[in-house]
Q: What sequence folds into this?
């Protein structure tokens, strides 16, 4: 059990923005069935409340230049997310079918195109599938402002670390690690962790490591840096080969390509995995980061591997998150912690607090 609180002087700065609560997913569409959305604004409130009770100091995110997005994302994706909901409302979707969220229905996969060039679809409901790769990740009126504010949370945390803070926590919502350079999905719209890693590189850190402890593989972050050696990506997650998102990637044999060969480490775990093997994987990731000689760290802190979370079959406890924080803190690297998943509201805040307590133990 957790036995002590860290010294108040050592507590992390918590960066948040009220704008991140403007994204209202409304629903998700899974195998054709409309279900309630799980990535809800209340996530921000329960995390912030728990961290304030633990003594962490909350500061509001500051706006940052748009260029930071384009360093890791194609301009077409960014423009689409910024404009598509207005375009949707300008159509007849609300009147025809009562749908005020942007929902893809057709996806121009490589198999569909058969080698022919990608063309921009004339219809908004078709173009949505060019950039969104699932039907679970809907776009509403507040999606773009919230996703943009989440990026500002991550970049403000980078600023704090650049200013001498050993660790800063970004309460990013929506999460981001499933967003690739040109496509969004998995309840994510912009890749907060990738933006943070690139910003640390731009701040003259020679090699940045991203360690992802979310229950699901961060396919977007992995893809963005897959051919780069200056940003390494390591992840412990439920095995996609056992039928879990993102299904098609996240396997152990994916180790990087070209300059990035050896700079990706995936550690998939079987459903039902609990604390001991999960922490052993975190230990392996920490050792790998040390061996790479990284001089800065981004932690994609998803807490949906927890016992009570509805989104994964892993059985990790708060004690293990505390242990993970301690293990990654022992690397002694300037660290930006970026919130990813975690959907069980009654336990969510305590799990994040446990990780940060471990980081400062």
A:
């Amino acid at each position: 059990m957790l036995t002590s609180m860290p010294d108040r002087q050592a507590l992390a700065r918590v960066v948040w923005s009220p704008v991140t609560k403007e994204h209202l997913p409304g629903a998700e569409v899974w195998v054709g069935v409309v279900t309630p959305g799980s990535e809800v604004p209340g996530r921000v409130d329960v995390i912030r409340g728990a961290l304030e009770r633990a003594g962490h100091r909350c500061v509001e995110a500051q706006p940052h230049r748009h260029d930071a997005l384009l360093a890791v994302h194609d301009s077409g994706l960014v423009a689409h997310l910024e404009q598509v909901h207005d375009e949707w409302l300008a159509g007849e979707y609300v009147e025809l079918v009562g749908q005020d969220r942007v929902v893809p229905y057709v996806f121009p996969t490589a198999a569909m195109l058969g080698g022919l060039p990608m063309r921009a679809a004339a219809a908004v409901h078709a173009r949505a599938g060019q950039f969104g790769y699932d039907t679970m990740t809907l776009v509403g009126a507040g999606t773009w402002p919230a996703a943009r504010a989440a990026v500002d949370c991550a970049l403000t945390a980078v600023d704090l670390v650049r200013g001498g803070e050993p660790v800063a926590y970004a309460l990013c919502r929506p999460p981001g690690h499933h967003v690739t350079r040109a496509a969004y999905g998995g309840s994510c719209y912009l890749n907060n962790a990738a933006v943070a890693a690139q910003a640390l590189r731009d701040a003259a850190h020679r090699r940045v490591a991203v360690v992802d402890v979310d229950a699901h593989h961060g396919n977007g972050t992995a893809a963005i840096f897959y051919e780069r050696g200056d940003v390494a990506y390591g992840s412990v997650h439920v095995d996609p080969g056992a039928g879990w998102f993102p299904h098609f990637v996240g396997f152990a044999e994916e180790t990087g390509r070209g300059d990035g060969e050896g700079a990706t480490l995936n550690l998939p775990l079987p459903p039902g995995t609990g604390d001991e093997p999960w922490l052993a994987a975190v230990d392996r990731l920490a050792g790998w980061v040390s061996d790479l000689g990284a001089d800065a760290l981004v932690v994609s802190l998803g807490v949906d591997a927890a016992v009570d979370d509805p989104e994964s079959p892993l059985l990790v406890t708060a004690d293990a998150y505390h242990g993970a924080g301690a293990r990654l803190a022992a690397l002694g690297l300037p660290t930006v912690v970026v919130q990813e998943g975690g959907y069980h509201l009654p336990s969510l805040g305590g799990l994040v607090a446990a990780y940060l307590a471990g980081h400062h133990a």
About this structure: Residues 1-9 have pLDDT under 50 and may be disordered. The radius of gyration is 19 Å. The longest strand covers residues 231-238.
